[in-house]
Amino acid sequence: MTRPKSPVRLEWVDPAVCSTDYRLKIIGRLPFFKHLPPAAISKINNLFHDVDVPADERIYHEGDEAAYLHLVAMGKVKLVRNAESGREVLLDILHGGDYFGSFSTLSGRAHTETAIAQTDSCILRISSRDFDGILADHPDVTRKVLDAVSRRLTESQEIVKQLSAYTVEQRIASALMRLASKLGESRGEGVLIQLPFSRQDLAAMTGSTTETVSRVMSRFADEGWVKTGRKWVTILDMKKLEELISKPYR
């Protein structure tokens, strides 16, 4: 019996991805900069510095001084946090155009999570001092930054609520839906979550164990809701997962 061919594409980070044109495009799409004119974006671009980060390397650790704001140009980055139980919780997986990290200007002196390159990545970063200069030149950016921080906080609170109140099946279904919304690719038979993705990652996202994730994912597959392989998932029936999430819990 032959093994099904994996639909996952291996990513290779082309240095040209961090070219000036691409940098201007993704910086200009940030929620707190997208209202600025091209001349201002060009000036801001000069304040960002690019760093190539190999897969599995830490970009910063939880508790490190928050001196930079980071932007994924290419690749995938995962954000993790150590829970009180000692277990590592996977907060999010980011892709091109997503920003992460912080600095004292916005939210305190230390990072509240650890950032790790999920794949080989090209990361842009700007220092706290340079960002302060942007706020001085463009005061209206401050409000948009606060709006963005507020949205992130709301999203985090929703995830915390799910971890404490949802059943494990609902948590796993919700995590799959979030990943599909951010990283999914439409395929003829469903939505492929396109990244090196393991049961351990899904367990870390949902506060469960790999054994529990395997059991629930097997059930989802038997029901025809998902198809799984080594480090990939295709969602075949989004409606069924949505119905599961919306059921009263506990």
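Second entry:
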Amino acid sequence: MKIGGTLTRYFALTFARAVAFVFMGMFLLIYLIDFVELLRRAGDIRTASVSLVAFLSLLRVPAVSEQVLPFAVLFGSMYAFITLTRKLELVVARAAGMSVWQFMAPPVAVAVLVGLVMTGIYNPVSALAKKHADELEVALFTSATGASDKEFWLRQRSLDGQAIIRADHAADGGTSLSGVTAFVFEPDGSFQERVIAKAAHLEPGYWAFSDARVLSPEEEPRDAASYLLATNLTGDQVSQSFATPESVPFWALPDVQRKTEQAGLDATAYRLRYQALLARPLLLVAMVLIAASFSLRFFRFGGVAKMVTGGVASGFVLYVATTLIGDLGGAGLLSPLMAAWTPAVVGSMLGTLVLLNQEDG
């Protein structure tokens, strides 16, 4: 029992160190690439010092590094398994009576722990950092008017009906718009009128359009110095719709989703993001099982390069499938629950099936 416990801790620490080493390497590589790109973009901005650009890049990288976490677990797992196999440590463990499932338990447990920590602790920190980075980037790379270069779209629902608002630029979290076009619909869904305005600002209970031109199918076009459009949106709700799901911390996603739905906005992206974060530990387990499927062959059998290539290709296919299914879920073609959990479940089952075949024939 003591030897088993010692081996378990050894395998767990070996796996954890390998994953941490690969993840930190990817983190630094992403940081350097992002830093160089931001320096290029900020070359003509006098207020953009090197230290400011470095700080902005540091705020942006954690959110990006979450996307490469599955690859870090895959590469770290393969490195750990190949190292243990090359040193014949797994051979000794098998000779001592350990099955593949016994020495797979520590890496799987570490993968689950990494997934929980990255979801519950790292994600809220990276989300807040990304939100701050977005605000800093807008302040640094926008024009003198302080408007964002992003095109802004918003759909709202009120007692007077529905409206779709589009703006060329948005500022103050989406509460101040310029180059605005609003498509207004009756409560029954029929088109009412289109409003083109120079600017719009969110006030309590309504949008205030300035220098507007109103076009209606039943009336002649008319100009209006001010046009008011009723809304039940608050500034916080508009800011939430303006923010990307990646900038919302994990623990705040259910509340943001609920408020977004209450405002009549589409909350699919927030539901998908929440379910994807919940499924992250299982996705990392799938990466560990895939790595083990291609890394536990004895070196004397040869074909190590093919094993590594097969493991990388399989992990890449799983990652691409996760992205594609996530896009289908974001488009509403699949439920967020199915889109988030299917790749992790299927990947885990396939990895388990391969290990069963290798262990039991």
